[in-house]
Amino acid sequence: MNTPAAAVFVEAPPTPPAERLRGLGDALLPAAAALLITVLLFSAAVALAGFNPLEVWGLILMGGFGDAFAWQNTLQRAAPLVLTGLAVALPAQAGRVIIGAEGALVLGGLAAAALGLPLSTQAPPAVVWPLMALAGMLTGGLWIGIVGWLREKREVNETIASLLMSFIAIALFNQMVETVLRDPASLNKPSTRPLPDNYLLPAMPGLDVHWGLGVGVVVAIVCWAVVKLTPLGLALRVAGGNPRTALGVGLPVAGLTIGACAAGGAAAGLAGAVEVAAVHGAANASLIAGYGYSGILIAFAARFSPLGVVPVAILVGGIAASGSLLQRRLGLPDASVTVLLGFAFVALIGCETLRNRKT
Amino acid sequence: MDTTTLGWWGVPLAILGGAIRVGTPLLWVSLGETVTEKAGRINLGLEGTLLMGAMSAYAVALLSGNPWLGILAAAAVGIVFGLLHGALCSLTRVNDTAMGIALMLAGSGLAFWLGKPLIQPSAPDLRSIDLGGWSSLPAVQQALAINPLFILGVALAFAVYWALGHTRVGLRLRVVGDSENAARAFGLSPSGYRIAATAFGGACAGVGGASLSLVYPGAWSEALSSGQGVMAVALVIFARWDPRRCILAGLLFGGASAISPALQAMGYTQGYYLFAALPYVLTLALLIGLGKPGPSHGAPGELSLNR
């Protein structure tokens, strides 16, 4: 690294502390403003609906993070949310806005259930679980990979296409669960045959949360390392930031972009597989829980950082977990939680205008 | 549904009736989005606006007993959401696609929250215009009972076509949508036109929502819209940003959505969900077939969708 350019870089004067402080402020200001606006807006909405905002916020904190039980509920929800957040954050590295993770999740779950059940009579759990995860990842990766491919080869807008693919995926899922793969014993709620109990993912030691959370965090760390530390990640970010430059220096932009979309789809498919293997034990309508849509908010709020997705997913998981407490204690509809997340999303995107202001 | 006297002929008739019923919200949303996109903005949040419109129309019709007041309320709510999107996206560094996704979430959440008490009661339906009086067959009469919002939407489509092509405002709007620099050179304010165009798009989406909840068999439920708001945005590309083609697009995709229920009414239930996915498959196939729309297709130059 003894090139002249590197030498110049080393000799450059260090950034003055004041300057650095301002940089930090610039980064924190939009988030702080968005938080303030969200709190004010949601408090106003709750007050208009005839509830005490302080009581509602208190219950959200309690229901999400108040005690061990709340944390268990929160982290249980955070497990798929980390992965659906990655499903949006990874394609975003290549400049693609994918909003159809929900479809990749349900198909991933379906593939995992369809493969896991016949295998459970042949092999021990330790063999079946990785294969189920692989089935979910391949299915989800293929599904969103198609979207990426369509964008590169046919210039089909990926945002719209991914949502359409998501609706198609859910229709396919319903068709399969209600016909070919249906367990005749599932009467009111069509479902695939359940996995044997000893094939359900156990809790992590010391935590009352299944291994799905650990898998999600490890995947997030790996994705972060690949994006930030490897040449592949650099190539991806160049392709996303400035495709013309990327083509100029000979990067395979189309391949990188399609790969990023497929990787995002694989994360969503893995989320579906984890939900089947750890929570539901079978593929049924419970998989269509909106995790894919929450992932969009999570990825944007984390500014597409694969590592940042983890804390945001826990926060969103906590808010979602508090929904049932709000309903039980105050009779506040569970849709109020969606409203809170929606307000936060609007405030967050709007407050982007405060970033890097030249004053 | 009485299709027994007609046998399998009942299916195309039911599809025609369904095409108009399901096509009405698609027509309204895509018409509004055409104007928004002509000004150079894309509003993906119309799914939320559609649901808010459907919910408020139903609530106001229920309280006032007059469905037309409900439609006005839906348009007003749509304008509020459109203004919000338009104004926020006029700030620097605020991305219109991302804001659309955010408003989609906020709008549908609000509609579900406020609409909770509306699931049980039934509001007055919008009276249909019966063009099938000449026939003694109930199925024919039913298929030709056209809802007035469809007729209004068709009239509006031609009016918007004329206004975009032949009025001062229409020309300025298209200049703003095609080139911001040119617009500034003419002394036009791009933000002002875009905010107004997004508000118009919101109003149309609100009315489209009203047609979902007030047209027979009117009801409010959380499953009322299944992505019609987003499909309509894709249909604008199919319509080549021509308001008249929005009518065709609405009917075609409304018809595709009606196939599944029509077959089910005939007792043919196999592959119900697969048929239900038909409109999405068709929309996607269309986007693939059309490829990237260029200026010769009427695509506005400033649209981020086409960059």
Order of strands, main sheet of chain B, comes to 1-2
Shape of chain A: globular
Measured as a percent range, the helix fraction of chain A is over 70%
Order of helices and strands of chain A: HHHHHHHHHHHHHH
Give me the secondary-structure category of chain A: mainly alpha
- What oligomeric arrangement do these chains adopt? heterodimer
Major sheet of chain B, described briefly? 2 strands, antiparallel
What's the total count of β strands of chain B? 2
- The termini of chain A sit apart by 37 Å
Structural class of chain B: mainly alpha
- Tell how many strands the DSSP assignment of chain A holds: 0
Average pLDDT taken over every residue of chain A: 89
Model description:
The complex is a heterodimer of chains A (359) and B (307). Chain A is built from 14 helices and no strands. With 359 residues, chain A is mainly alpha-helical. With 307 residues, chain B is mainly alpha-helical. Chain B contains 13 helices and two strands, in the order ααααβαβαααααααα. Chain B is globular. The model of chain B has no long low-confidence stretch (mean pLDDT 87). The chains are: A mainly alpha (359), B mainly alpha (307).
Write the layout of secondary structure elements.
The complex is a heterodimer of chains A (359) and B (307).
Chain A lengths: L3 H8 L5 H32 L4 H13 L2 H26 L7 H19 L5 H30 L3 H21 L33 H18 L1 H11 L1 H6 L4 H28 L10 H11 L7 H22 L4 H16 L9
Chain B lengths: L9 H29 L7 H19 L2 H23 L6 H20 L13 E2 L7 H6 L1 E2 L1 H19 L1 H11 L1 H6 L4 H25 L13 H11 L4 H23 L6 H5 L1 H13 L17
Antiparallel strand pairs in B: 1-2
Helix pairs in contact in B: 1-6, 1-9, 1-10, 1-11, 2-3, 2-4, 2-9, 2-10, 3-4, 3-9, 6-7, 6-11, 7-9, 10-11, 10-13, 11-13
